[in-house]
Design goal:
Elements: H1 2-14, H2 23-30, H3 64-67, H4 90-93, H5 114-117, H6 169-172, H7 193-196, H8 217-220, H9 239-242, H10 263-266, H11 285-288, H12 309-312, H13 356-359
Helix pairs in contact: 1-2
Length: 396
């Protein structure tokens, strides 16, 4: 009906067929507008001839009479001016497949658009495609990849089946030489020196990495003298580092300690009858004798004129000072010294009876004193039978 209306309007305006119809004549007439007042700048084309001439520039947006309205997707015309594209209106604009982009949002995949997404990988197509997702191998597609995997020992190092030098040395070879010393696969210095380095052997004459004087003195020399008492060093084998053993509280004869060499541990030798090991008359008179008499008056040893007149000289007599000095006795100073039997002075009540050493024997004084008898003092004591002396008138 729209087309008939347009043709009728064309006929009325031009009195028959026309060679030039302004698009606004037709569209405005169709919409009830004024067909006699086309705006300036209208396109010159055969709009209204019943043919939508796209080559001549006709489209739904400039020749409704020939091309129809553009206000809906499905008009058969892909109108960019209306925002139509393969993405928004595939009915008018066709599929986007072929633009070189695999657009999954538009539903493109290897099945829907192989041109953009590539051909689908199909197990059984005779091609073992390692770039497929997932990659094809004997485990995922034995049909294309040479049959089912036969496992370790088949001569093929199959990474897809988890084979590696660590899991399948027969197929993949040994891991030795990969630069990693892997104990998990049995690598160590003896089995794989390339990765783990040569074994360190104490006693081979070389002080190698890991050896030192403490762990291998045979190769690296003794640590004694380095200023540190460590390892096997003791005061017994390395006094340079550990110091002397004397003073540790143990008298160790194995280290040569004796009372002479180490009195701190072995105590003094004083009393063994031998003046040795630093002993002197001052430190050990028991072994070395008294120092008195060495012509040296040694006050530090307690020598004075009273204790050692030989070295210090006789003390001056100071009778009357209340002190009985060494040179004084009751013979020369009864004021300071009390009588003592044996001092050579018969004083202070001493008698021949009480102190014959000072007062002499009593025999002859006419008194038979105690201790006297006819045997020892016939002058004072008469004979008496039974006194053990056959004297006087006694006879057998």
């Amino acid at each position: 009906m729209a087309m008939a209306l347009a043709l009728a309007l064309v006929g009325a305006a031009g009195g028959g067929a026309c060679s030039r119809i302004d698009r606004f004549d037709v569209t405005d007439a169709a919409r009830g507008g004024d067909a006699a007042a086309p705006p300036d700048g209208g396109l010159s084309m055969a709009c209204g001839d019943g043919v939508c001439d796209a080559a001549g520039g006709e489209a739904c947006d400039n020749c409704f009479a020939d091309c129809g309205a553009c206000d809906f997707c499905g008009s058969g015309v892909c109108s960019a001016a209306q925002g139509e594209s393969c993405t928004t209106c595939s009915t008018d604009c066709g599929s986007c497949c072929g633009d070189g982009t695999c657009d999954t949002k538009m539903g493109e995949d290897c099945t829907a658009c192989a041109f953009d997404c590539g051909a689908c990988v199909v197990c059984g197509d005779g091609v073992c495609n390692g770039f497929a997702s997932p990659p094809e191998d004997c485990g995922t597609c034995g049909m294309d990849c040479g049959g089912a995997c036969t496992g370790c020992g088949d001569g093929t190092c199959d990474a897809g089946a988890g084979e590696s030098c660590a899991t399948c040395a027969p197929d993949c070879g040994t891991c030795c030489g990969d630069g990693m010393c892997d104990a998990a696969v049995g690598e160590f210095c003896a089995s794989c020196p390339d990765d783990c380095g040569g074994c360190v052997v104490c006693g081979n004459g070389m002080c190698q990495t890991g050896e030192d004087c403490a762990t291998c003195a045979a190769d690296c020399g003794s640590c004694c003298g380095d200023g540190t008492c460590g390892g096997p060093e003791t005061c017994a084998n390395c006094q340079a580092d550990c110091g002397t053993c004397c003073g540790n509280g143990t008298c160790d004869a194995g280290f040569g300690e004796t009372c002479s060499t180490c009195p701190a541990d072995c105590s003094t030798c004083c009393g063994n009858g031998t003046c040795s090991g630093g002993e002197t008359c001052g430190t050990c008179p028991a072994d070395c004798g008294s120092c008195c008499g060495n012509a040296s008056c040694e006050a530090a040893l307690g020598e004075t004129c009273s204790t050692c007149a030989d070295d210090c000289g006789a003390c001056p007599i100071t009778c009357g000072n209340g002190v009985c000095d060494a040179a004084e006795n009751d013979c020369n100073c009864t004021d300071d010294c009390s009588p003592a039997c044996g001092d050579g002075c018969c004083t202070g009540g001493e008698t021949c009876a009480s102190c014959a050493s000072d007062c002499g024997a009593c025999c002859g004084n006419g008194v038979c004193n105690a201790g006297e008898d006819n045997c020892n003092c016939g002058l004072d004591c008469g004979p008496s039978c039974g006194d053990g002396c056959c004297t006087g008138s006694e006879n057998s």
